[in-house]
Design goal:
Blueprint: H1 2-20, H2 40-43, H3 48-53, E1 64-65, E2 71-72
Antiparallel strand pairs: 1-2
């Protein structure tokens, strides 16, 4: 019983000593391993709402394009959605 108490006390002391060692203060992020570190411009925060507020307005008949250059079709709010071919779906 005494041996278990001494062992427990020694383990607690070892854990306390390990918890006390380490880097104190601000931790710096290490540079990336597989790529170049980001530039200072990339590190500065961007005010995204201001970027959207300065975007020019598009007219109703102007086309929208995706990042590959393809036109994004616009929905027709006056078109009737045909749901007559949609039957109940059951399991199996």
């Amino acid at each position: 019983m005494k041996r278990t108490g001494k062992l427990l006390l020694a383990m607690t002391g070892a854990c306390a000593m390990l918890a006390a060692c380490g880097i104190r203060g601000d931790l710096e992020r290490p540079p990336p391993i597989f790529s170049d570190p980001p530039s200072e411009e990339a590190k500065t925060p961007v005010d995204v709402p201001a970027a959207y507020a300065e975007a020019p307005d598009k007219s109703e008949d102007e086309a929208y394009y995706n990042e590959l250059g393809g036109e994004i079709p616009k929905s027709d709010p006056a078109a009737d959605v045909g749901e007559d071919g949609m039957d109940e779906v059951g399991p199996g």
